[in-house]
Design a protein that fits this description.
The protein has about 110 residues and is mainly beta. About 0% of the residues lie in helices and about 50% in strands. The termini are far apart.
């Protein structure tokens, strides 16, 4: 079955950086577009960006330039590099298989 497990969330100071990982299993990772979503307390889910099977990326305007999505198909792993973090980036971050709509459990990022 499809399984996605995020990791790398942590407490970080404003201006800091984090790299989140999402380990995928149960499907042919390299064949699927993947994306990242976050949800802050009391707020709606917020789409962050997508990476296609060729490695081309698309971002939400508000994070473009600070966040970078990448993938390592040999490791079945999706990444989200986040730089210049702000308190408003505090949220639970999720990776999603865009075709199957499977989600991981999420990883907490706190910027404070």
């Amino acid at each position: 079955h499809v399984q996605l497990v995020e990791s790398g969330g942590n407490l970080v100071q404003p201006g800091g950086s984090l790299r989140l990982s999402c380990l995928a299993s149960g499907f042919t990772f390299s064949s699927y577009w993947m994306y990242w979503v976050r949800q802050a307390p009391g707020k709606d889910r917020e789409y962050l960006g997508t990476i296609n099977t060729d490695g081309r990326t698309f971002y939400r305007t508000t994070v473009e330039g600070r966040f970078t999505i990448s993938r390592d198909n040999a490791k079945n792993t999706l990444y989200l590099q986040m730089n210049s973090l702000k308190p408003e980036d505090t949220a639970v971050y999720y990776c999603v298989n865009s075709a199957t709509d499977d989600w991981g459990p999420g990883t907490q990022v706190t910027v404070s």
